[in-house]
Q: What sequence folds into this?
């Protein structure tokens, strides 16, 4: 292959609050480690989205920047056309919400989404959903359990044609009461998991890459294996991982 | 310089020569509260439970809710807040004020309300007060302390699990300053969030007592101010348009723009609008501390300290609450650096000494750090390629994955002392110098582990 595989990171300054730009870095590195040339193209607000990329990546962000990003995306049809032409998309948190039919922000305003995913998001009641998540993925995806960290106020309900990414074992995920997490439509994957999600779940990264490039040779991931073991165990047994300070010492150190 | 009015709270003369404590002119309840808190703090220190400033302050507040307000009344005071640099700037500011007279300060970094209270336990009559305050508690602190001046450093992402805090802090600051007429604000003109927050205090007409001293610090971190805090549109940075210590920035649709600084940095020189120029020479390393010092000088001037005198006093500050401290660990000279978030790391990567100095990095995700360490992916760790690097801390595994993707060869070791030993062995030198960079609670853990001599 002569042309590098192109991975577009959409609006890192708007949708980059939670380190999700790391997903693009993970995708590119996993190709380079397989001797496949790859490049990450940062697309900033106000710039045209390049049409020829193989994978588009969007992350999470605060309310005002999210609405700004949705406006930018709706001003053209490049992303929708690219998906039609065979590109893959990973959309995290605010990104997931923007790709749905519509979403309501913290300010109560409803915004039109891109409609790439059959879901809609409204403001949830009660506190934000924050913390470690464990997801058992849809068996058809052939992935091991997913680990991540969620942080959102939105509640996403899936439409009749939608398939979830998986079922939540720990945490909230879509938080719509059906125990689902994320949403998958062909090569478009939406999830609430940060971490970044592809850093903690290399199998999902390879799944996205294979969806546009075909089968890939396996990689050794000893650092990630150790992290996954720790995170999955911590999420499932939180009581074993409380801070080491005793209660009375914490009283004195409660800065 | 605008904003350098006569301080609002001239130190009240002591009404009695009884003792050196300044509690004499306080209500009985407050005096009892302060004495009880101080006794508890001393007891806490005595049994080795910690500094005692938090528990002492809590006891005082339990007895007298208004203790902070009453104890701070009648003192010239300055409050320092922001995401990064609070402790260092407050230390420099306290040093400048100390060149003139006694100072009460929370130099150990206990920056919530109880910590502020206990820092006033030993305040003498007429002592100036210099306090660092957590960015989420500035409004509360300003309402109680009625400070002569407020120094606003920066706002950036920190503790990702606490959503939307950056913008909310800016909004809270804005309300707090609007409700505190007469307080002089010293603000970083290179941070749009700070500029917007401080703008609430700008006087409508000349001669208004409220004012802002804008300082051009040349701050580098921009990623948290891409959307205008005022209207949500994009902020444009004009890198081709340098002006007074930074570059021009402006909102693409509303009038928010970089204010014209009253003081700014040209290299290590602090330049004032009247043409005076002061060379800042510090024992503390790095460009970021020159910026902190510039803010501290402006803060000290707001309390009437001569800038030349302030700069001189700051030049003697060596370590700040353990930061930049050098520890001898089994023959290795380990320098401790704190970096809590991407903005802090952007500066820390410049502070780290060049290769072959090995680097140990400690990452925790406790409540005080933020429970989500995803921010590690916003740090350009690629710059550490080719060096000896050791990952440690409770979340050293997350760091290890980040380093792997950055193509930084490294080892992982959970134990702090063993991590230093690995770095030392990896350097191949006999008595190597090592830079140890850690985030907030990892820094505290490392300092304890490396000074006590015991493994954690």
A:
């Amino acid at each position: 292959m002569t042309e590098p595989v192109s991975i577009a990171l959409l609006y890192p300054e708007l949708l980059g609050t939670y380190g999700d730009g790391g997903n693009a870095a993970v995708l590119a590195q996993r190709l380079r480690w397989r001797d496949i040339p790859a490049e990450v193209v940062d697309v900033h607000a106000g710039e045209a989205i390049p049409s020829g990329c193989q994978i588009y990546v969007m992350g999470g962000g605060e309310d005002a920047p999210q609405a700004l990003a949705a406006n930018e995306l709706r001003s053209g049809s490049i992303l929708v056309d690219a998906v039609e032409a065979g590109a893959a998309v990973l959309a995290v948190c605010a990104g997931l919400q923007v790709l749905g039919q519509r979403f309501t922000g913290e300010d109560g305003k409803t915004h039109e989404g891109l409609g790439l995913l059959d879901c809609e998001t409204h403001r949830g009641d009660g506190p934000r959903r924050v913390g470690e998540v464990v997801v058992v993925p849809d068996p058809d995806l052939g992935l091991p359990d997913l680990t991540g960290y969620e942080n959102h106020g939105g509640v996403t309900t899936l439409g009749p044609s939608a398939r979830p990414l998986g079922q939540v074992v720990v945490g909230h995920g879509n938080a719509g009461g059906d125990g689902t997490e994320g949403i998958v439509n062909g090569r478009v994957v939406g999830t609430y998991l940060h971490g970044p999600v592809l850093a903690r779940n290399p199998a999902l990264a390879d799944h996205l890459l294979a969806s546009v490039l075909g089968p890939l040779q396996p990689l050794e991931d000893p650092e990630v294996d150790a992290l996954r073991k720790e995170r999955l165990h911590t999420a499932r047994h939180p009581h074993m991982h409380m801070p080491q300070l005793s209660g009375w010492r914490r009283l004195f150190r409660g800065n | 310089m605008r904003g350098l009015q006569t301080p609002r709270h001239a130190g009240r003369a002591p009404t009695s020569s009884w003792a050196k404590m300044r509690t004499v002119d306080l209500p009985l309840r407050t005096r009892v509260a302060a004495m009880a808190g101080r006794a508890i703090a001393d007891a806490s220190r005595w049994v080795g439970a910690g500094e005692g400033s938090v528990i002492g302050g809590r006891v005082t507040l339990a007895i007298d809710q208004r203790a902070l307000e009453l104890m701070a009344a009648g003192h010239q005071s300055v409050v320092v807040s922001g995401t990064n640099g609070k402790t260092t700037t407050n230390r420099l500011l306290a040093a400048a004020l100390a060149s003139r007279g006694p100072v009460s300060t929370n130099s150990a970094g206990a920056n919530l309300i109880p910590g502020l209270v206990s820092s006033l336990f030993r305040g003498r009559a007429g002592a100036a007060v210099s306090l660092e305050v957590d960015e989420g508690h500035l409004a509360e602190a300003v309402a109680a302390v009625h400070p002569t001046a407020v120094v606003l450093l920066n706002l950036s992402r920190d503790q990702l699990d606490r959503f939307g805090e950056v913008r909310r802090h800016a909004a809270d600051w804005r309300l707090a300053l609007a409700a505190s007429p007469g307080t002089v604000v010293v603000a970083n003109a290179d941070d749009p969030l700070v500029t917007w927050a401080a703008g609430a205090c700008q006087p409508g007409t000349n001669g208004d007592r409220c004012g802002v001293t804008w300082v051009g610090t040349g701050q580098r971190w921009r990623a948290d101010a891409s959307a205008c805090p005022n209207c949500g549109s994009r902020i444009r940075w004009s890198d081709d348009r340098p002006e007074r210590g930074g570059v021009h920035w402006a909102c693409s649709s509303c009038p928010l723009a970089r204010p014209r600084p009253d003081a700014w940095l040209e290299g290590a020189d602090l330049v004032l609008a009247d043409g005076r120029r002061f060379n800042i020479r510090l024992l503390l390393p790095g460009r970021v501390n020159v910026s902190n010092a510039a803010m501290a000088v402006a803060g000290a001037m707001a309390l009437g300290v001569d800038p030349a005198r302030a700069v001189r006093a700051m030049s003697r500050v060596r370590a700040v609450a353990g930061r930049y401290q050098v520890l001898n660990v089994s023959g290795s000279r380990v320098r401790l650096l704190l970096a809590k978030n991407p903005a802090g790391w952007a500066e820390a990567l410049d502070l780290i000494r060049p290769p072959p100095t090995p680097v140990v990095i400690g990452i925790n995700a406790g409540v005080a750090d933020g429970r989500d360490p995803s921010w590690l992916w916003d740090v350009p760790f690629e710059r550490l390629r080719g060096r000896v690097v050791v990952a440690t801390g409770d979340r050293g595994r997350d760091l290890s994955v980040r380093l792997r993707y950055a193509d930084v060869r490294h080892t992982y070791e959970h134990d702090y002392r063993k991590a230093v030993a690995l770095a030392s062995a990896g350097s191949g030198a006999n008595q190597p110098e090592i830079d140890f960079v850690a985030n907030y609670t990892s820094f505290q853990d490392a300092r304890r582990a490396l000074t006590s001599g015991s493994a954690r």
Chain A has one domain: 5-221. Helices of chain A lie at 22-32, 63-74, 78-84, 94-99, 197-200, 202-213, 222-236, 247-252. Residues 91 and 209 of chain A are 14 Å apart (CA to CA).
